[in-house]
């Protein structure tokens, strides 16, 4: 039977994180079980919107069908996995290993909400519900909000100074840019 407790508490507490309230982090299902549940549920809940956006952006004149979907799927999976792996090493390095799971579980759930909002903007633009300029403005605003959310989460759950939290935000932003470049490069090389 599927345990929906992690899903319920994860999303409820992520909605608190959006309001810069980290009090719900301890209510999330913790430990290794909580980590895998947060990673699984967050990626699965966001996947339908990502797939729909992939379908709307697919151009048969520019892309090979199976290659396009394979590269985009591969990038999606890597995007969910690479940050937790790097953060585990960073938390060990800065002596915050004990706080790592609280941070990464909350980060995954926050990522679920953030990516959902971001993809909804992309879908609205791809389906011509809003203009490219409107989507760009919303995306930039959402990106800055996401950076603030992640910095606040890192500062409070890892108990680190703001400068270190900003470093984690820069790492997250850098990884997002690298994933985009990787996807574009792989698709262009066909």
UniProtKB/TrEMBL annotation:
Q: Name the source's superkingdom.
A: Bacteria
State the UniProt keywords alphabetically: Membrane, Transmembrane, Transmembrane helix
What parts of the sequence cross the membrane?
A: 35-56, 106-123, 135-154, 160-188
Q: What is this protein called?
A: Uncharacterized protein
Taxonomic path: Bacteria, Pseudomonadati, Pseudomonadota, Alphaproteobacteria, Rhodospirillales
């Amino acid at each position: 039977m599927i345990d929906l407790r992690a899903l319920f508490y994860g999303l409820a507490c992520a909605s608190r994180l959006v309001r810069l309230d980290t009090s719900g982090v301890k209510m999330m299902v913790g430990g290794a079980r909580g980590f895998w549940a947060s990673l699984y549920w967050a990626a699965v809940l966001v996947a339908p919107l990502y797939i729909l956006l992939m379908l709307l952006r697919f151009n048969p004149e520019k892309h090979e069908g199976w290659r396009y979907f394979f590269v985009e799927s591969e990038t999606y999976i890597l995007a969910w996995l690479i940050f937790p792996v790097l953060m585990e090493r960073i938390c060990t390095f800065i002596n915050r290993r004990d706080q790592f799971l609280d941070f990464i579980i909350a980060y995954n759930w926050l990522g679920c909400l953030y990516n959902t909002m971001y993809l909804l903007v992309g879908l609205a633009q791809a389906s011509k519900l809003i203009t490219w300029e409107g989507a760009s403005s919303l995306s930039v605003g959402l990106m800055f909000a996401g950076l603030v959310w992640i910095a606040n989460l890192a500062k409070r759950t890892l108990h680190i100074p703001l400068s270190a939290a900003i470093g984690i935000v820069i790492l997250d932003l850098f990884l997002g840019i690298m994933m985009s470049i990787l996807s574009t490069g792989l698709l262009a090389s066909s």
